[in-house]
Amino acid sequence: MPTAPRALLLLIPLLTMVACASTGDGGTPPQDRPTPSTTAPTPSVTPTPSPEPSSPPAPAATASRARPPLSATEPPTMRPPVVKPSPPSDLRQTDLVSGTVTRGGTGPCYGLVAEDGTEYALHGPDAGELRAGSVVTLRITIARARINCGPGLPMSIVSQ
Q1: Consecutive H or E run containing 17
Q2: 3-state class of 156 per DSSP?
Q3: Residue 49: which pLDDT band, with cuts at 50, 70 and 90?
Q4: Is residue 141 classed as helix, strand or coil in its secondary structure?
Q5: pLDDT, position 26
């Protein structure tokens, strides 16, 4: 075998060692060597430290992280409650009362003792004749006129 190729085989490792020694990396492969951008000198200006928070974050900020997000659906619109109209206050409240006539006649004043024992002093100019001792059922209301018809609770007879 010729001597030249043998010398060339010895020369290749020697050249590799010389090339590595001239770069100063001690034989580090090129893919592992640092790039020039990472070995650039850092600026001489020192960064200003960021201020430390003086208090912990607001409770709303931490609570909002724990809660799920609100729905995107709009809530229903509430309507005002439906209230039945009250009856007119000028209507007269009437009651049916059954009892015995104690003071009768052609009117306008009468006496009545109801089945429950309540005594009424009734005024009814249009009631007609009521005989004492008869049992009747009358529609009565609170007396509007101040007429004294004797002893008992003053009421008025409602004529139809």
Answers
A1: helix 3-23
A2: strand
A3: low
A4: strand
A5: 53
φ, ψ of residue 45 in degrees (nearest 5): -80, 130
Cβ 111 vs Cβ 97: under 8 Å: no
Spatial contact of 107 and 125, defined as CB atoms under 8 Å apart: yes
DSSP per-residue letters across 70-135:
PPSSPPPPPPPPP-PPPPPTTSPPEEEEEEEEEE-BSSSEEEEEETTS-EEEEE-TTS--B-TT-E
| Measured distance CA(100)–CA(117) in Å, rounded | 10
24: left (phi over 0), alpha (psi -120 to 50) or beta: left
Residue 155 parent element (H or E): strand 153-157
Alpha-carbon distance of 157 to 160, in angstroms, equals 10
Both tokens of 82, joined, read 């439906």
Q: 44-48, 83-87, 94-98, 129-133 — which is least confidently predicted?
A: 44-48
Q: With beta carbons less than 8 A apart as the criterion, state whether 137 and 114 touch.
A: no
Q: What is the pLDDT of residues 84-108, one digit of tens each?
A: 777 666 656 778 999 999 999 998 9
Q: Is the pTM of this model over 0.85?
A: no
**Is residue 109 a contact partner of residue 122, using CB atoms and an 8 Å limit?**
yes
Looking up tokens 């990396």, which residue turns up?
25
